[in-house]
Design goal:
CATH class: Alpha Beta
CATH topology: Pyruvate Kinase, Chain: A, domain 1
Number of helices: 6
CATH superfamily: Pyruvate kinase, C-terminal domain
Strand order of the largest sheet: 1-7-6-5-2-3-4
Shape: globular
Largest sheet: 7 strands, mixed
Order of helices and strands: EHEHEHEHHHEEE
Distance between the termini: 33 Å
Helix content: 25-40%
Strand content: 15-25%
CATH architecture: 3-Layer(aba) Sandwich
Number of strands: 7
Radius of gyration: 16 Å
Structural class: alpha/beta
Length: 195
């Protein structure tokens, strides 16, 4: 099998529109029924949901957890939330798979947790957007918004800073079965990584 991969020159939101178009095309080719997209404020998820409108593909927008940047606050924009709901997208939020309580322990008493090693390895070798795409796939699975089985494939989308710059075809897994997850295809990713 031969497939082309889009390689962006750099990370960031300037890649979002091309990535969205490539995702729609690959979802149609593979018959993908679920697209999971990291979207803190909702703008990236709106682009994806608009592009997939009427195509029988469920869009799941995964946001930062409450209190990540400011205690008790959620970063999702209210107007964007309404637009996503009107487009039929699902919005979910929960603790990050590659941080949570283990990161709190590392901050307080020092040392490095195993989850930090996994997170930092993915970020360093493949880039932040790649790590985020895998993370949101697990978050969507743990929230019950995507099916998880040996023959399920979804598209997971992540980004570096803002927007989207990585799209992957993934066999998803729940967080407690992390090593069952498989990256089946890379649709798009940046060649350069953040240092």
């Amino acid at each position: 099998m031969e497939r082309s991969i889009i390689y962006f020159d750099d990370v960031g939101k300037q890649n979002t529109d091309e990535l969205v178009n490539a995702t729609v095309k690959r979802a149609e080719e593979l018959g993908i029924k679920h697209v999971v997209v990291a979207s803190t404020g909702g703008a990236t998820a709106i682009k994806m949901a608009q592009a997939l409108k009427g195509k029988d593909v469920k869009v799941i927008s995964v946001t930062h957890q409450y209190g990540l940047r400011e205690g008790g606050k959620w970063e999702m924009d209210d107007a964007n939330l309404k637009t996503l709901e009107d487009l039929g997208a699902v919005v979910t939020t929960q603790s990050h798979m590659f941080s949570g309580v283990e990161r709190a322990i590392s901050k307080r008493i020092g040392g490095v947790s195993r989850i930090d090693v996994i997170s930092d390895t993915l970020r360093a070798v493949f880039g932040k957007g790649f790590k985020v795409a895998l993370e949101v796939a697990m978050m969507a699975a743990d929230s019950g918004h995507i099916p998880v089985s040996s023959d399920t494939e979804i598209i997971a989308i992540g980004g570096t800073r803002q927007g989207a710059d990585v799209a992957l075809v993934v066999r998803p897994a729940h967080s407690h079965e992390f090593f069952s997850m498989q990256v089946r295809e890379i649709i798009a990713m940046p060649r350069a990584k953040e240092d």
